Amino acid sequence: MVLSSARHITHMDLDTFFVSVECLRNPKLKGKPVLIGGMSDRGVVASCSYEARKFGIHSGMAMKIAKRLCSHAHVVKSDYEAYSKYSRLVTDVIKDSVPLYEKASIDEFYIDLTGMDKFFGCLKYSDELKKKIVKESGLSISYALASNKLVSKVATNEVKPNGQLEIPFGNEKTFLSPLSIMKIPGIGKETGYRLLKMGVETVKTLSEIPVNMLYNLLGKWGIELHRKANGIDETPVIPYREQKSIGTEETFTTDTIDVKLLHQELVRMTEKIAFELRSQEKLTGCVVVKIRYSDFQTEQKQMTIDYTAFDDILIQKVKELFTGLYTKRQLIRLIGVRFTDLISGTHQIDMFNDSQEAIKLHQAMDSIKKQFGQQYLMRASACMDNKNITHAPKPYKT
């Protein structure tokens, strides 16, 4: 195991990522309160600008409440395709520049520069990497360099936006001590409330509580929390791995039991992510369908299939899964489709099932979609009145 004193971990975090992307696409939004998310009152805020945060708005807040807090805010519909594009761009820059990195989320990275201090100086190298990312992407990014992931992440949050900071080895506890306990990753509202009731407000106070007392209070998490409060974290930087799944979810404006509408939306969603599969030259070997009822109970069902990226096959499997899953006949709030077990490759022609006409048809449809956009070509069975849709299907990848 590499000793903590030998580690140099840089945490990089793109500042208000979704907002920054939208400001690149529309410079008129710069310096203004911006809300990213669903356009209807049932939507939520996916991200907001620093100008909007001054009004008490935060990610996860209902859009209806956010617009009340800042009536003059600019509301922009989420475009996850654009965010994924810029995320991949930044990922490629980091991939080409460092020996080991972990992509913690769409806009957050851990970089292990251990050993590079002998040649370049880790702080200088981190600064050069930041400048390269800004130059090639146009996005603002903050970073912190420390001896472990925990301290580097907390430090990055302290210097955002567009900041940089180094916490030298041995200064971890000194840096963390004056901060609020809520700055420690993993302390949620419930744990935070319990600690605050005990008069534990700062990390310094938390670090001085005997580990046995924290264990009695919080179980094994109490032991981990004691280590965090003392700046101890041996978690390794986990190498970035290829995408494992692709999916999309849809929240309805009004909870529905209309099976025809649900089938139409499933077809439309499946077409959308199947096209993205083919665009990435990938195939899926497993289909997952999810439904969330009006009481927020969530269920899902999956099916292993022969590797494919063809709409006809995937739509059939999605419908079969939905039919087997939707047995309660209760109102549905959300439906989702996800493809997992992804591999690189293109569809192999099945001589018993795929006709030459079908192959050419898919190729022609994809060509039109790439040239003019997916929204201009879809199956008639996917056409529907969108009044009951909160927003366009939201793709996500893991």
UniProtKB/TrEMBL annotation:
<dbReference type="GO" id="GO:0006281">
    <property type="term" value="P:DNA repair"/>
</dbReference>
<dbReference type="InterPro" id="IPR017961">
    <property type="entry name" value="DNA_pol_Y-fam_little_finger"/>
</dbReference>
<keyword id="KW-0235">DNA replication</keyword>
<dbReference type="InterPro" id="IPR001126">
    <property type="entry name" value="UmuC"/>
</dbReference>
<dbReference type="InterPro" id="IPR043128">
    <property type="entry name" value="Rev_trsase/Diguanyl_cyclase"/>
</dbReference>
<keyword id="KW-0460">Magnesium</keyword>
<dbReference type="GO" id="GO:0003887">
    <property type="term" value="F:DNA-directed DNA polymerase activity"/>
</dbReference>
<comment type="subunit">
    <text>Monomer.</text>
</comment>
<protein>
    <recommendedName>
        <fullName>DNA polymerase IV</fullName>
        <ecNumber>2.7.7.7</ecNumber>
    </recommendedName>
</protein>
<feature type="binding site">
    <location>
        <position position="13"/>
    </location>
    <ligand>
        <name>Mg(2+)</name>
    </ligand>
</feature>
<dbReference type="GO" id="GO:0000287">
    <property type="term" value="F:magnesium ion binding"/>
</dbReference>
<dbReference type="Pfam" id="PF11799">
    <property type="entry name" value="IMS_C"/>
</dbReference>
<dbReference type="Pfam" id="PF00817">
    <property type="entry name" value="IMS"/>
</dbReference>
<dbReference type="Pfam" id="PF21999">
    <property type="entry name" value="IMS_HHH_1"/>
</dbReference>
<keyword id="KW-0239">DNA-directed DNA polymerase</keyword>
<feature type="binding site">
    <location>
        <position position="107"/>
    </location>
    <ligand>
        <name>Mg(2+)</name>
    </ligand>
</feature>
<keyword id="KW-0548">Nucleotidyltransferase</keyword>
<keyword id="KW-0234">DNA repair</keyword>
<dbReference type="InterPro" id="IPR022880">
    <property type="entry name" value="DNApol_IV"/>
</dbReference>
<dbReference type="GO" id="GO:0042276">
    <property type="term" value="P:error-prone translesion synthesis"/>
</dbReference>
<keyword id="KW-0238">DNA-binding</keyword>
<feature type="site" description="Substrate discrimination">
    <location>
        <position position="18"/>
    </location>
</feature>
<feature type="domain" description="UmuC">
    <location>
        <begin position="9"/>
        <end position="188"/>
    </location>
</feature>
<keyword id="KW-0808">Transferase</keyword>
<comment type="similarity">
    <text>Belongs to the DNA polymerase type-Y family.</text>
</comment>
<keyword id="KW-0479">Metal-binding</keyword>
<feature type="active site">
    <location>
        <position position="108"/>
    </location>
</feature>
<comment type="function">
    <text>Poorly processive, error-prone DNA polymerase involved in untargeted mutagenesis. Copies undamaged DNA at stalled replication forks, which arise in vivo from mismatched or misaligned primer ends. These misaligned primers can be extended by PolIV. Exhibits no 3'-5' exonuclease (proofreading) activity. May be involved in translesional synthesis, in conjunction with the beta clamp from PolIII.</text>
</comment>
<dbReference type="InterPro" id="IPR036775">
    <property type="entry name" value="DNA_pol_Y-fam_lit_finger_sf"/>
</dbReference>
<dbReference type="GO" id="GO:0006261">
    <property type="term" value="P:DNA-templated DNA replication"/>
</dbReference>
<keyword id="KW-0963">Cytoplasm</keyword>
<dbReference type="GO" id="GO:0009432">
    <property type="term" value="P:SOS response"/>
</dbReference>
<dbReference type="GO" id="GO:0005829">
    <property type="term" value="C:cytosol"/>
</dbReference>
<keyword id="KW-0227">DNA damage</keyword>
<dbReference type="InterPro" id="IPR043502">
    <property type="entry name" value="DNA/RNA_pol_sf"/>
</dbReference>
<dbReference type="InterPro" id="IPR053848">
    <property type="entry name" value="IMS_HHH_1"/>
</dbReference>
<dbReference type="InterPro" id="IPR050116">
    <property type="entry name" value="DNA_polymerase-Y"/>
</dbReference>
<keyword id="KW-0515">Mutator protein</keyword>
<dbReference type="GO" id="GO:0003684">
    <property type="term" value="F:damaged DNA binding"/>
</dbReference>
